[in-house]
Amino acid sequence: MKKLKSKELKPLEVRVENDNVERAISTLKRRMATEGVLKTLKQKRYNVKPAIANKVKSLEAERRRRKERKMRTN
Question: Are the C-beta atoms of residues 14 and 27 closer than 8 Å to each other?
């Protein structure tokens, strides 16, 4: 069995049960958000210079750290 690398994308599958397409679509959107598919698509839409990409990456990391600290104190 081959391990998936972090950059590899796995196919997302959502089953439609009882002809409830709306629920399946909302489930798909939720899964895409948690997997980061939409974020990746938005990032790849434009060519970003490496310096700007590094700056954005560090800002996001700082935001995550702040959020994690806030969650620990509460």
Answer: yes
What are the DSSP calls for 45-74, one per residue? Answer: HS---HHHHHHHHHHHHHHHHHHHHHHHH-
**Measured CA distances, 16 to 23, 24, 38, 40 (Å):** 8, 6, 21, 26
- pLDDT, mean of residues 43-66: 92
Tell me the two tokens of residue 70. 């806030």
As given in the structure block, the two tokens for residue 66 are 């702040």
DSSP 20: -
pTM of the complete model: 0.49
